[in-house]
Design brief:
Number of domains: 3
Number of helices: 21
Helix content: 40-55%
Number of strands: 11
Shape: globular
Strand content: 5-15%
C-alpha cells in the first residue's frame, strides 16, 4: 500500500510540472477566493449601513411629542427659547389616541413602535413629510431656529422638531388654486352650514351684559361682530373685540357664494358653535367643571347623530373658536373647558387665534383687527396712507407691566423705552389708555417698530394691529407668530419682523432700543413695503358684504386652504 501511494504522488507531481497548468490553477483559486471575500465584505457593509440607519432613525426621529405626552405641564408651551420650560416626561401614552382620533390610534401595532408612533403620516396629513423638499425646508427652518431657540435638553430638541414638522405640514396645505384657476369658482368648494339650535351660538351672546365683570360686551356684538364704528378713523373701522372671531366668520360663511344647502354637495361642513363665548361666560363665575363642559358635550352628541359627521369621522368638519387653544384644554387649572381634549374633537379642523403647537389640526388664523374693508379701494387707500405716513417715533410699546410675573420682560422693555424717550414712546395700558382703539392705532401709525412681548399667552392681537398700521413688529418669543400663523405669515420671518431673544432681554444682555436704532432707513422701508403691499390684505377680515376683485382677505385665504387641506385628507 505504501508503494501505491508513492506512485500516485509521483504521478500527481508530474502533472504539476507544467508551469502553465500551475499558473492557471493558482489564478482560479485566487479569483474564486476574492469573489467569496468581496461578497462577504459587501454583505457585512450593507448590514452595518442598515443597522446605522435604523439606529439613526430611532434617535433622530422620535416622533412622540414630548409636550403631548406631558401635556401642558407648568406652562402651555414646554419649549420656547430656553426660558423656564421644564419637561416632565410621562409614561402615559393614552394621549396618542387623543391626538389623532380613534381610527388612527386603535388596532395598529405600528402605533406602539418608537419610530412609527404616528402611523401612516401621508394618510393622516395628506402630505409626505419625509420628502426631499421637506428635508430642504427643514434644513432652512433649522437655520432660522438656531437664531432664536436654544434647546437645553434632548427632549426639548425633539419637541422643537415636532413643532416645526407640524408647521411644515400646515404650510403644505396652502392653496395654489388661485394661480391656475378662477378663485371665485365654487366647483368642488361647497360649504354646508349646520342650522344649530340657538343655545349653541346666538343665545350665548344674550348674556353679554354680565359676561365680563368690568365691561358690557353687548357693544362688541353689533354689526356682525365687528362692534361699533370708529368714525374718526374712517371707512371700515370698528371697535372689534379680540374674541369676536366666531360671529365674524359665521356671518361671512352664511353669505359665502359657495354655500350649499344639501349635505351631498358639501366639501366642508361648518359647525357654528360659539365655544369661545361658552368658555368666557363661565370664566369669572364659580361653577363646576360639569357646567363648563356641558354645552361642548351636547354639541358633539348633536353632531354624533348626523350621517354627515359619521361618514368621515368629522375630518371634513370645521370649528371656529375665538379664544386660545388652552382655554379648551383644561388641565390642572380651573378655567376653560376640555372641549378640544375630547376624543371626538381630534379629527375636525379647529380655527383659533392661538393654536396648540403640537396639534396639527389646530390652525391659527389672525386675531380680528379694527379694520374691516368692504372694497378694493378701502384696502388700496389705506395701503397708500400707511406707506406715505411720516413716522415720528422709531419705537413704541403699548402694554402694561406684569410685576406679578417674574418671567415677564415687560418691565425691562418699559425701562429701556423710557430711558430713550426721544426714540421710544410708551403707551401705558394699565391706566386704560389702550381701551380706545384710536390711541393704539395712531401710536402704531407713528412708529417704525412696535415691541410685542408675550402677555397672558404668547400671541397678541397687537401684532396684527401693528402690521396693518405699517409698524414692524418686534417679536421676543417665537410662539408669538413664527409657530402659529402658517397660512397667513411667511416662513421667512425676517421679511416682516425683528426677533430679539427674550432671555437676552431678561438677563440685560441686549438693549432693544439700541439694537433697533442700528437698523438702516433702507431696511425699514423694504420691510414696511412688504408688510403693507403683500401681507396687509390677507390679515384683515372684510365686511360680510365685501366685494374684493384684486385681494384675498384673511377669510378668503383661510377658506381656500381649508379646501386644500380637506381635499388631501378625505
Amino acid at each position: 500500500m505504501g508503494v501505491s501511494v508513492s506512485k500516485r504522488k509521483l504521478r500527481s507531481s508530474k502533472k504539476t510540472d507544467d508551469p502553465r497548468i500551475f499558473f492557471l490553477n493558482n489564478l482560479c483559486y485566487v479569483f474564486f477566493r476574492s469573489i467569496v471575500y468581496l461578497t462577504l465584505i459587501t454583505v457585512i457593509f450593507f448590514f452595518l449601513i442598515c443597522l446605522w440607519l435604523s439606529f439613526t432613525t430611532l434617535i433622530s426621529d422620535n416622533v412622540l411629542p414630548i409636550c403631548v405626552l406631558s401635556w401642558k405641564l407648568n406652562h402651555p408651551y414646554c419649549l420656547t427659547d430656553g426660558s423656564k420650560r421644564v419637561f416632565q416626561t410621562s409614561t402615559n401614552l393614552t394621549t396618542r389616541s387623543e391626538v389623532f382620533g380613534k381610527d388612527e390610534a386603535s388596532g395598529s401595532k405600528e402605533n406602539e413602535d418608537g419610530d412609527k408612533a404616528f402611523g401612516d403620516q401621508t394618510k393622516i396629513y395628506g402630505v409626505n413629510v419625509i420628502s426631499d423638499s421637506d428635508s430642504k425646508a427643514k434644513n432652512k427652518s433649522k437655520e432660522d431656529q438656531d437664531n432664536y431657540t436654544k434647546p437645553k435638553s434632548e427632549e426639548e430638541v425633539y419637541a422643537l422638531r415636532e413643532v416645526t414638522k407640524y408647521i411644515h405640514i400646515q404650510r403644505s396645505w396652502i392653496s395654489t388654486r388661485r394661480k391656475v384657476e378662477n378663485p371665485r369658482s365654487c366647483e368642488g368648494k361647497g360649504v354646508y352650514v349646520y342650522d344649530l339650535p340657538s343655545k349653541f351660538n346666538r343665545d350665548l351672546l344674550v348674556d353679554c351684559i354680565d359676561m365680563v365683570p368690568w365691561t358690557n360686551m353687548c357693544k362688541f356684538f353689533k354689526n356682525d361682530g365687528f362692534g361699533e364704528p370708529i368714525e374718526n378713523l374712517g371707512q371700515g373701522w370698528f371697535r372689534t373685540h379680540q374674541y369676536a372671531l366666531e360671529p365674524i366668520l359665521h356671518s361671512r360663511v352664511l353669505k359665502h357664494p359657495c354655500r350649499v344647502y344639501k349635505e351631498s354637495q358639501a366639501k366642508i361642513f361648518y359647525v357654528p358653535f360659539y365655544g369661545g363665548f361658552d368658555v368666557l361666560r363661565w370664566h369669572f363665575k364659580n361653577v363646576s367643571n360639569d357646567v363648563k363642559d356641558r354645552l361642548a358635550i351636547e354639541i358633539l352628541e348633536w353632531l354624533g347623530s348626523k350621517e354627515s359627521w359619521k361618514r368621515n369621522a368629522g375630518k371634513d368638519h370645521v370649528f371656529v373658536l375665538g379664544k386660545i387653544s388652552w382655554d379648551f384644554r383644561r388641565n390642572k387649572f380651573q378655567w376653560g373647558s376640555r372641549f378640544l381634549d375630547l376624543q371626538e374633537m381630534q379629527n375636525p379642523t379647529k380655527l383659533l387665534i392661538e393654536r396648540h403647537p403640537w396639534e396639527v389640526n389646530d390652525i391659527a388664523i389672525p386675531h380680528p383687527t379694527y379694520f374691516h374693508p368692504k372694497t378694493d379701494y378701502d384696502i388700496t387707500s389705506w395701503q397708500n396712507k400707511m406707506i406715505s405716513k411720516p413716522r415720528r417715533n422709531l419705537i413704541s410699546f403699548a402694554g402694561g407691566a406684569r410685576p406679578g410675573n417674574p418671567n415677564s420682560i415687560r418691565s425691562t422693555l418699559i425701562e429701556q423705552c423710557t430711558l430713550f424717550s426721544d426714540q421710544c414712546r410708551f403707551l401705558n395700558c394699565s391706566d386704560g389708555s389702550c381701551d380706545q382703539p384710536e390711541n393704539v392705532i395712531k401710536l402704531f401709525q407713528d412708529s417704525e417698530f412696535c415691541m410685542q412681548p408675550p402677555g397672558d399667552s404668547p400671541t397678541r392681537k397687537s401684532v396684527f394691529d401693528s402690521l396693518i398700521s405699517g409698524c414692524i413688529p418686534v417679536i421676543f418669543d417665537p410662539y408669538t407668530a413664527y409657530y402659529q400663523y402658517s397660512w397667513h405669515l411667511p416662513e421667512d420671518h425676517k421679511r416682516y419682523s425683528v426677533y430679539v431673544n427674550q432671555e437676552d432681554v431678561k438677563e440685560k444682555r441686549v438693549n432693544v432700543v439700541e439694537k433697533l436704532m442700528a437698523k438702516t432707513i433702507r431696511e425699514r422701508e423694504v420691510m414696511r413695503s412688504y408688510i403693507v403691499h403683500h401681507l396687509l390684505p390677507g390679515l384683515v377680515y372684510g365686511d360680510s358684504n365685501a366685494k374684493f376683485d384684486r385681494f384675498r382677505d384673511a377669510f378668503d385665504i383661510t377658506f381656500d386652504n381649508l379646501i386644500e387641506k380637506i381635499n388631501k385628507l378625505v
